[in-house]
Amino acid sequence: EAGVVQSPRYKIIEKKQPVAFWCNPISGHNTLYWYLQNLGQGPELLIRYENEEAVDDSQLPKDRFSAERLKGVDSTLKIQPAELGDSAVYLCASSPGGKTEAFFGQGTRLTVV
Amino acid sequence: QKEVEQDPGPLSVPEGAIVSLNCTYSNSAFQYFMWYRQYSRKGPELLMYTYSSGNKEDGRFTAQVDKSSKYISLFIRDSQPSDSATYLCAMTLGANSKLTFGKGITLSVRP
Predict the structure, then answer these.
(1) CA–CA distance, B63 with B54 (Å, rounded to integer)
(2) CB-based contact (8 Å) between B95 and chain A?
(3) How far is CA A95 from the centre of its chain?
(4) Does the beta carbon of B93 lie under 8 angstroms from any beta carbon of chain A?
(5) Which of A35, A113, B74, B85 is the most buried (most CB within 10 A)?
(6) What phi, psi does B82 have (nearest 5°)?
(7) What angle do CA B33, B95, A101 make, to 5 degrees?
(8) Chains A, B: CB pairs < 8 Å
(9) Mean pLDDT across the stretch A34-39?
C-alpha cells in the first residue's frame, strides 16, 4: 500500500512569491492533516480535514495561508505571499476514520530567500 | 508551559545500550500516546501507539504510560546504529484529533 505522497520534496522561492504544496493521502483515509515543522521542533497542526470539510483550522494563518481538499481526497496548501519566516518543513498526514494513528508523508522543505 | 515537554538532547550512546526517552504532559485529557521516529530529511514514522496506562512491547521497543504522573517513556533495548534518529512523543485527545508533539530528541548510537 502506498503511503502519503507529497510534492514537491523541496522548494526554494523568493519572499513575496506564492507557493503551493500537494498531498495525496493513503487510500481510504478520511482524515487529512497539514503540519508545520520548524527546525528542532515537533510538528504543529495547521489544518485538519474530515473528508472535504476543514474541521480544525484555528492554527492556520488565514491572511496568507489557504488550503483545500476537493472531493475529500487530495489536498493543496498554499502560501501567498511567502515570508522569510515560512521557511520550514510542511508535512501532510492522514488517518483512517475513527483512528488516532496518523501516517506522515516525506514533507516539503520550503526555503524562502 | 508547553502541553508536552520532552527531555532535551542530543543523546549519544554506545551500540547495545538501553535507551530511555521521556515526555511529560500537562493536559490530563490526553488519551492516546504515540512515539514517532524521524530520520534526517524524512517524515515522522509511527513507532509505538498506546492507549492506557501500562507497558506495550514490540521487539526491542517498550512504550510505557503513567497517566497518574502524566509521564510517558520509550525504552530501546540493544540499541543499534540504525536507531540513530530523532524521536518524537505525541499525544491526542481522541480519534482523528490533532496530535500534540514534543520537541523531539536526537539519538545517536555509536558502533
Answers:
(1) 8
(2) yes
(3) 14
(4) no
(5) A35
(6) -70, -10
(7) 55
(8) 63
(9) 96
Per-residue confidence band for B8, with pLDDT thresholds at 50, 70 and 90:
confident
**What is the mean pLDDT of the segment spanning A63-87?**
95
The number of residues in chain B equals 111
Of A7, A24, A6, the C-alpha closest to A74 is: A24
Residue whose entry in the numeric block shows the C-alpha cell 526554494: A12
CA distances from A31 to A27, B11, B82, B98 (A): 11, 34, 31, 10
Identify which of B81, B59, B63 has the alpha carbon closest to the alpha carbon of residue B23: B63
Percent of chain A with pLDDT over 90: 90
Task: Residue B88: list chain A partners with CB under 8 A.
Answer: 42-43
pLDDT at A68: 96
pLDDT band per the 50, 70, 90 thresholds, residue B18: very high
Determine which of A23, A44, A90, A100 to mutate to test the interface with B (most B C-beta atoms within 10 Å). A100
